[in-house]
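Lab notebook page, bench 4
Experiment: in silico fold of construct C2
Operator: M.H.
Input chain length: 127 residues
Purpose: comparison with the prior construct
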Amino acid sequence: MEFARPRHRRPLEPIVPMINVVFLLLIFFLMSAQIAPPAPFDVTLPESGAGERAAPADTLYMDEGGRLAFNAVRGDAVLDALAARATPDAALQIRADAGMEARALARLLPELAAHGVAKVEIVTRAK
């Protein structure tokens, strides 16, 4: 009696190394991603013509009522926090609400200069 020889099966490819690579890539992208902190309050930016995109910098938020926010600081303490910021020579971005009066922003600029802010960029959105 002759029995048929069993066919030789190819060994299965191990999937564990591929899973390890996927997890390593996932961890790499999570660690290298820059997570932006949320805005302290809603600000509707004014519209402007075509311009260049602003580089990431320190950001001062100003709402429609004139309230100020910088990092975790709110209110009158913002100006002192701006004077003590880590990079005083870097530009300060101002994200002011479109509904705010321009006079409030104009009154703020000399105060910023008095606290050592030399360069200011006003952030707008394209039309």
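Observations: The radius of gyration is 27 Å. The CA atoms of residues 1 and 15 lie 41 Å apart.
Next step: discuss at group meeting.
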